[in-house]
């Protein structure tokens, strides 16, 4: 929960407002979530005729695009992409219209979907279940309700994120004495995500547990730009505060400094 209601600084607004929001995300977090999406889809059997797939909490359509560009897809494939973030939905709808993709894009909350029971053959929730209410359980229940008997659900969460400690350190550097939120639920060991799926109705014996790694690769010369865009998204985890506009460059420079020495980050060449 944010500790203030101060509006984001102008530098952040320039990067995450309107149509720019999806573009900024795609060049930062999107580099990693796309790898997870591809890995997730590689775990499931080939998609057959009659498939109806839910790209749940779709963002700008990472899973939908991975599906569309997969080989040997059935000609009657139907994808429903849902999210509550209008800029992301608008960006995806533009692509759908441009390429005539078989994707329906709608604004829906993952905890209260409009779809009927047993609608989908597949439901994919990529790096999003932990955003849903009741510590993920409400989202998991809707996945179970809307999935056909025998259908396939793919749900994942973070075990470790390289940027978290640097972001926290920057917060403590520029906002001394201001608390940084601690997650109420620990998702890192995979136990909680399994629990909410079982509590939603999925059987333990039907679950398959996997781990995978993903990373962003960029030139050193572009690292500050990446850090600035990332700070625009992540700097408000603890709530934006008065003075954040004035300390913006200091925060971004500090984030670059910390990322370069953070375990899990490798700096090579230029």
UniProtKB/TrEMBL annotation:
Gene Ontology molecular function: any one: methyltransferase activity
Q: Which residues form the signal peptide?
A: none
Keywords, alphabetical:
Methyltransferase, Transferase
Q: Which GO terms describe its biological process?
A: methylation
SUPFAM superfamilies per record: S-adenosyl-L-methionine-dependent methyltransferases (SSF53335)
InterPro entries in the cross-refs: Methyltransf_25 (IPR041698), SAM-dependent_MTases_sf (IPR029063)
Give residue ranges for domain Methyltransferase: 55-151
Q: Which Pfam families match?
A: Methyltransf_25
> Any idea what this protein is called?
S-adenosyl-L-methionine-dependent methyltransferase
What species is given as this protein's source? Didymella exigua CBS 183.55
């Amino acid at each position: 929960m944010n500790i203030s209601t101060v509006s984001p600084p102008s530098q952040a607004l320039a990067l995450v407002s309107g149509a720019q929001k999806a573009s900024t995300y795609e060049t930062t977090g999107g580099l990693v979530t796309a790898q997870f999406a591809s890995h997730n889809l590689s775990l499931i059997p080939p998609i057959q005729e009659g498939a109806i797939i839910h790209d749940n909490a779709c963002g700008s359509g990472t899973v939908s695009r991975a599906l569309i560009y997969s080989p040997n897809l059935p000609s009657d494939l139907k994808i429903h992409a849902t999210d509550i973030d209008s800029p992301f939905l608008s960006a995806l709808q533009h692509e759908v219209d441009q390429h005539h993709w078989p994707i329906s894009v709608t604004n829906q909350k993952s905890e209260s979907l409009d779809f009927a029971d047993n609608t989908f053959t597949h439901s994919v929730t990529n790096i999003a279940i932990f955003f849903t209410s009741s510590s993920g359980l409400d989202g998991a229940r809707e996945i179970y309700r809307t999935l056909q008997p025998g259908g396939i659900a793919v749900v994942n969460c973070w075990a470790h994120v390289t940027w978290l400690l640097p972001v926290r350190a920057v917060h403590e550097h520029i906002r001394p004495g201001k608390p940084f939120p601690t997650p109420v639920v620990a998702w890192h060991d995979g136990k909680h995500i399994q629990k909410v799926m079982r509590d939603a109705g999925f059987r333990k014996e039907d679950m398959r547990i996997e781990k995978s790694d993903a990373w962003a690769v960029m030139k050193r010369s572009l690292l500050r730009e990446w850090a600035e865009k990332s700070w625009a998204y992540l700097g408000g985890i603890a709530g934006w505060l008065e003075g954040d506009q004035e300390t913006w460059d200091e925060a971004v420079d500090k984030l670059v400094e910390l990322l370069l020495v953070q375990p899990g980050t490798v700096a090579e060449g230029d």
